[in-house]
Fold each of these.
Amino acid sequence: NAGVTQTPKFRILKIGQSMTLQCTQDMNHNYMYWYRQDPGMGLKLIYYSVGAGITDKGEVPNGYNVSRSTTEDFPLRLELAAPSQTSVYFCASRGQGAVNYGYTFGSGTRLTVV
Amino acid sequence: KQEVTQIPAALSVPEGENLVLNCSFTDSAIYNLQWFRQDPGKGLTSLLLIQSSQREQTSGRLNASLDKSSGRSTLYIAASQPGDSATYLCAVPMDSSYKLIFGSGTRLLVRP
């Protein structure tokens, strides 16, 4: 199925542990984004990429890292998990061109840090 | 700095009602505005995208309008159904890289 695939769907981490949230899209979109959503809030941008090999910080990048070695994949790395990183994480992609401005979102990864 | 606000935060209506969700933004220099639907525990589904040059977009029972000069958009849902129950989010791109700034959403409950 075409779209954005995120794994895992759920994860519990202990404080100080590390993990990588995986994101893959098969639509050949250049733009990819990572957002986090805290309860009752809108989404905030963590990192984004405008193409393979190019990444940049968003609004809340502290405690995270990303890489973009291929067009398809955009993993998000948490190095030292903290309770403040408990959230739902969404990956999204967007194509180029006038008809492709809309976003496609993955189903999210629910992360709890204890 | 662009800020996006959605009012009301929650709305409960009986089935069959027509309803309006509101979205306001502080900087009128936007590329477009997008409305999303989010079901509990799920990701976001794009409903409508209005380009800055457009006044409205329609998809089935949904109609979104955009008034850049006043910094407002509305999502009109006609003949609401229980299946419309979800959280509705609006978002505008921050710049040409289309990083989105989201409102905090309106949680809609349509009662049978």
Amino acid sequence: GQNIDQPTEMTATEGAIVQINCTYQTSGFNGLFWYQQHAGEAPTFLSYNVLDGLEEKGRFSSFLSRSKGYSYLLLKELQMKDSASYLCAVKDSNYQLIWGAGTKLIIKP
Amino acid sequence: IAGITQAPTSQILAAGRRMTLRCTQDMRHNAMYWYRQDLGLGLRLIHYSNTAGTTGKGEVPDGYSVSRANTDDFPLTLASAVPSQTSVYFCASSEGSGDYNEQFFGPGTRLTVL
């Protein structure tokens, strides 16, 4: 079967750094996506990785290791508005996205 | 207004009733998708369409049907609603269906079946 695992919930302090991990087992791999979803809203795209390594975009970075079936999303200089769920998704051999259940990130002042 | 719209925003429905959720995009995207999102579970694909005139089944298609008569619209129909179909439904679209194709999501429809 196909499986995406990520922690259910994490807590961090405003101004700090947090790393959200994602491990996956899928039939094929055509890229890994991270989305942000605020409560009651739609998911919005954050990042895409298809090759091993780190992709940096402002305060957010995403890392991929295909051999380990592992990715992480790194959020720096946390702000209260970063309180949201972060969804990891892998595009499989059929080019369909398989989604993790999401990590709820709580930011404390 | 560029983007995806969904209607209705929310709906309470009696079991056994027929219901169509509407989805329209104005980005001229080729691919469109319907997902359901339930607490504690990831988004699950119901049906998809890679281009107008074609549709395919996702992970959880039973009890749902779709059509794609044109590029912009992708309605989802529940023929006879059951309580297990209570969920938040998201429509999404992407320019294509290949490896890098970011999906853009509509605001969602919150459906309760009693």
